[in-house]
Design a protein that fits this description.
Elements (H helix, E strand, L loop, with lengths): L2 H28 L7 H11 L18 H30 L3 H10 L2 H11 L11 H28 L1
């Protein structure tokens, strides 16, 4: 399998898995569970371009132009990067006959990114420690990344059928 083929597969898997994760977020929102506002991700990225990595509270930071679109774009780009990580780890054999466990493991492991990088950068602290309900928020992140792993498996399964 060529690099281009593996990259294309990872792109489709990442977009598909991120869409599954977004459906999960939509369900949570309809159930009254607060979810991530991707405008805040875009705001953080906009400030990052000007050299500011960390904020006390990203919601209080100066808004940046097109922050919502920027946040959604980053969200999907990260999903594709995580799918590329999976594809590099498992190789082409998995792409031909996907199994659930590797996708779940990579999905769950990727929760380290928000808990140890994004949350501290936007002012929520490591493992959401500066939020009113850190354990609940960590479990919510873990569940979301578990769903992302399921989404990678489902997307790879659909791709293998094509």
């Amino acid at each position: 399998m060529t690099f281009t083929t593996m990259f294309s597969a990872a792109l489709l898997i990442g977009v598909g898995a991120t869409m599954v994760m977004d459906l999960w977020g939509l369900l949570l929102k309809r159930l009254g569970v607060a979810t991530l506002n991707f405008a805040m991700v875009g705001r953080w990225a906009g400030h990052l371009l000007h050299g500011r990595v960390r904020h006390q509270a990203i919601a209080k930071a100066e808004p940046v132009r097109h922050e919502l679109a920027l946040g959604w774009g980053i969200h999907y780009a990260i999903g594709v990067l995580f799918a590329m990580l999976l594809v590099v780890i498992v190789g082409e054999g998995w792409l031909l006959a996907p199994t659930l466990l590797p996708a779940l493991v990579v999905g769950v492991v990727t929760v380290v990114a928000p808990l140890c990088f994004m949350q501290p950068a936007i002012g929520a602290g490591f493992f959401a420690s500066r939020t009113p309900t850190p354990v609940r928020n960590c479990l919510k992140s873990l569940a979301t990344h578990f769903v992302f792993g399921v989404g990678m498996f489902l997307s790879a399964g659909l791709l293998a059928l094509a």
